[in-house]
Amino acid sequence: MSFQILLGFAQAEINALPVPDQVLPVVNSDNKQTEISRNGLSAIFKMRLTLWNDGTPVTVYVLPDDHQLHREFSKKILHVFPHQLRRIWNNAVFSGSGQAPIVLNSQEEMIDKVANTPGAIGFVSTNNLTENIKILQVQ
Question: Least CB-packed of 4, 52, 111, 136 within 10 Å?
């Protein structure tokens, strides 16, 4: 058997493997913005960027600090630890210079809130995507 045929079989097997579940930032489906820089996304979740490009206020939803998906989103997407985000939010609240995001209890609640709140942003795992929300591509 030739190398090309073996390579073809190996590629077919790789393509057949299920895609691992990932965490993705999602926005309200009416949001006109489809992509954002990693710095912009970080600024939103650090509560420093409060308006979308079209001037719509941003409403940030997160899961509890100890939720696996929150930890994964913080580390893999924002490149910070959850306790670092909590410190930023607490400093903003205690100094009176800002606010903390709205904490929800589940991905189902996250989907509902993001889908029904103009300007909303949150995060869900890929196996929980619905047509009521859209993925915000990170550049």
Answer: 4
